[in-house]
TrEMBL record:
Catalytic activity: D-fructose 6-phosphate + L-glutamine = D-glucosamine 6-phosphate + L-glutamate
Superkingdom to which the source organism belongs: Bacteria
Subcellular compartments: Cytoplasm
Listed name of the protein: Glutamine--fructose-6-phosphate aminotransferase [isomerizing]
GO terms under cellular component: cytosol
Catalytic machinery residues: 364 (for fru-6p isomerization activity)
Organism: Pseudonocardia oroxyli
Range within the parent protein: 243 to 611 of 611
Length: 369
């Protein structure tokens, strides 16, 4: 699926637009209506084995690592297992402690990233159990791991990851429900997340249609593409969204972008805030809403321009512009909030006439050290 560009100007915008379908493919056949859990046949784990794991450690590079950050939060929230994510490219150079009761998850769109493969091999050499979340069927990492989840996002041609990112997070939500339902996740809670997942394709469609109609994100992109630097911030689930948003923005526009956890602003980057430095902030309407708006107030007090991603328009004293995103379940909001940031990066790159699908100095899959 998806290796042809068709009528689209770039693969990047084509692949952003494909996300309703790619998420559907990730979910297809995996929602178990009877037991309110996820059916994940490829995991290759018995119930007993799956219940014996006490921790989850996720490894990947670039966008795969940021998807892993969200995966770790999903697993911790829904399965109540301690879970962390780390760059495979750093992990491989440490001498990691490999524990028998830790489930290791290698994340890779291509299944060929050498740093991720090296981490898998080191884990396996020490007896670690590694599963994969991979897009390309039959790829090297898919073959090396002991079971896993294919995301079935279809061929991703643009160097910048988009549909593989959202599908990977959706796959993590399935894994979290699967592990959770073997532990203490109530059937109604499992159902709530599964219903939330099933609604995502329609909600992504809404985001894409709203942009076609109003062009809000394109207008914001044209404004901030002229700046020297952009700050992306978020808390909790918004923090990996900010990291992925900044990565996307800098890699395709070549404009410096930096992601910070909102509460860390006061420990350094607040010194940068001025009318010259726009901030893109992830502000979901959840239990941290007030914390997030008080961060915006601090930025506004220093006359920093603010673009908010939120579930409803924020007052002008908090944000110059709000990009309104449909509401999902709080655990899944990050998937929807990622989509406008992909569009933001795309339109900035187009405004600056960059090589959108093949940014300078980058490769789609990094198979050399
Ligand atoms: C490269 C790509 C990124 C990607 C990363 C990991 O740096 O440019 O878009 O996120 O590799 O790739 P993988 O195929 O392992 O997900």
């Amino acid at each position: 699926v998806g290796a042809e560009i068709g009528d689209h100007a770039h693969f990047l915008i084509k692949e952003i637009g494909e996300q309703p379908r790619s998420i559907e493919r990730t979910l297809r056949g995996r929602i178990d209506e009877r037991f309110n859990t996820a059916h994940l046949g490829g995991l290759n784990l018995s119930v007993r084995e799956a219940r014996e794991f006490r921790r989850v450690k996720i490894l990947g590079c670039g966008s795969a690592c940021y998807a892993g950050d969200l995966g770790a939060q999903l697993i911790e929230d829904l399965a109540r297992m301690p879970a962390t994510s780390e760059s495979a490219s750093e992990f491989r150079y440490r001498n990691p402690v490999v524990e028998p009761d830790t489930l290791y998850v290698a994340v890779s769109q291509s299944g060929e990233t050498v740093d991720t493969l090296a981490a898998v091999q080191e884990l396996q050499r020490k007896g670690g159990r590694v599963i994969g979340i991979v897009n390309v069927v039959g790829s090297t990492i898919a073959r090396a791991v002991d079971g896993g989840i294919y995301i079935h996002a279809g061929a991703e041609m643009s160097v910048a990851a988009t549909k593989s990112f959202t599908s990977t997070v959706a796959a993590f939500a399935l894994l979290a429900v699967h592990l959770g339902r073997m532990r203490d996740l109530a059937p109604t809670e499992g159902r709530r997340i599964l219903d939330g997942l099933a609604a995502l394709p329609g909600q992504i469609e809404e985001i894409l249609d709203a942009e076609k109609r109003d062009g809000t994100i394109e207008a914001v992109a044209q404004e901030i593409a002229r700046r020297n630097s952009v700050l992306f911030i978020g808390r909790r689930r918004g923090w990996p969204v900010a990291k992925e948003g900044a990565q996307k923005f800098k890699e395709v526009s070549y404009v410096h972008a930096e992601a910070y956890a909102s509460a860390e602003l006061k420990h350094g980057p607040l010194a940068l805030v001025s009318p010259e430095l726009p901030t893109v902030a992830c502000v979901p309407d959840d239990d941290l809403f007030d914390k997030n708006t008080s961060t915006l107030a601090e930025i506004r007090a220093r006359r920093g321009p603010v673009v908010a991603l939120a579930h409803r328009a924020l007052p002008e004293d908090l944000a110059d512009r709000t990009i309104v995103v449909p509401r999902s379940e709080p655990e899944l909001d990050s998937i929807l909030m990622s989509v406008p940031l992909q569009l933001l990066a795309y339109h900035a790159a187009v405004a600056l006439e960059r090589d959108v699908d093949r940014p300078r100095n980058l490769a789609k899959s990094v198979t050399v050290e």
